[in-house]
């Protein structure tokens, strides 16, 4: 390491720790009257948010929560969740955002593994909690969250109801400074094999991530997404990487924030219209549901900017949203990266190009944000050129990437092998610095000696007028090693079979966009494609389903 010159600070100089409380303190400086809105039930301003965070801190401290304790939350997206995202880490504790869409067995595992001591439970999840309570090994007390008039529930060691306790607590709390490297949050990846893994982030990491996101989304003119005059509504669950970290950004900037509770497409449209929402973020499947809602059919969503992540943004969805007035922008990240790594960027060269070229780059994973390093490596760990052609695993460095998995050092070491975080994604980098995700390493299809990207194939198939939704996986083939298999959800009033799909894809083969080996010889027409708990295509489940269909000669199948 270089022997640099370090000058000690002056006596009495304040050593400023990067703590989450700084983000809350910043919010009310800009527009004190901006509101935090929860459905049609709660509406208050930023000074009230700060007061409620202090009240919650007093409630938790009085209940025995100490620095280093883990406090779990089971709730839908709400003002309460926002308050917990600040109050819990601001007293030095760790907030565990429980994925309520996991199976009861997985929820039980994550709570015991995280060593939760206190749990805030929405009344809708009381039955779920009761079913696992007897096997929880570390939980000492519970606290009820509810939107109903009923202020009690059969929860073990119940402290009381959230609003009642806050009303009785002091509106002032002296939030002390502490080490910025203290863990602030933890949550568990959904994982496709084995138990979920615990990802954790420190105060320093979350503050730096917040600054990085606000710069990426607020200062790059070609895709400017987020400013102080925007109205923010998350459509990504707050249990999933803190709703991608955007509530911290929105609070730091003092934006009006709208929390929809349980996601219902019809109600999301109503909230968008009533609260004049201008900025949101979600995965493609949720956006598709929103566009298919009855309330959306005659609605012009002009002025609504939506960031798409979690899964690849295909051109068909981009154009469908654009036709409804929505400006989509792709971004990239994963649970372990905080999550934002990159966001679509159009430089001067692209801005001077055609609309088709601009769309092509708006739906790519984008350019790494400030302080992010990205590289492509081969299977031996050698770095590959940024030529837009060389494919390899995307590896990353940034000051907010998780440094490991909770209580699983071996898996953490695998994640950080060679000093770079391994994403498990196959990608290219081009001369403009643009990341183009080609596939997950485990989802790339090898057929006839060629590698096929399931994401590319899904994008091209989605352009058929009959296709509402598509997923492609590789299935074993005795002659070719693997062959692509497509699951299709068809639009009402349309029809398609394997032969029609082949005719649709042939022009892309002739243009050189697709190998002839990439055309699926088998498809399944289904009413729904399996998704993970956070709305991604569940390709592990899809492969199992296909095997079962083939074993029983299911009539779902269509073959060339």
Quaternary structure classification? single chain
- Strands of the biggest beta sheet: in what spatial order? 7-6-5-3-4-8-9
Gyration radius, to the nearest Å?
24 Å
In round numbers, the mean pLDDT is 92
User: In CATH, what is the class of the domain at 22-201?
Assistant: Alpha Beta
Q: How many β-strands, per DSSP?
A: 26
CATH topology label of the domain at 22-201: Rossmann fold
How would you sum up the global shape? globular
Provide the β-strand percentage band. Answer: 15-25%
The CATH architecture term of the domain at 22-201 is 3-Layer(aba) Sandwich
Q: Which blocks of ≥5 consecutive residues have pLDDT under 50?
A: none
The N- and C-terminal alpha carbons lie at a distance of: 62 Å
Number of helices: 18
Largest sheet: 7 strands, mixed
Give the topology, please.
Blueprint: H1 20-27, E1 35-38, E2 42-45, H2 46-62, E3 70-74, H3 79-90, E4 94-97, H4 104-114, E5 116-122, H5 126-133, E6 141-145, E7 158-161, H6 162-168, E8 183-188, E9 198-202, H7 203-218, E10 231-232, H8 241-244, H9 246-253, E11 256-259, H10 265-275, E12 279-282, H11 284-292, E13 304-308, H12 315-323, E14 326-333, E15 340-343, H13 348-351, H14 355-362, E16 367-368, E17 373-377, E18 392-397, H15 409-415, E19 421-429, E20 435-440, E21 445-447, E22 450-452, H16 454-462, E23 467-477, E24 481-490, H17 498-510, E25 522-525, H18 539-551, E26 557-559
Parallel strand pairs: 1-11, 3-4, 3-5, 4-8, 5-6, 6-7, 10-11, 12-13, 13-14, 24-25
Antiparallel strand pairs: 1-2, 8-9, 14-15, 15-16, 17-18, 18-19, 19-20, 21-22, 23-24, 25-26
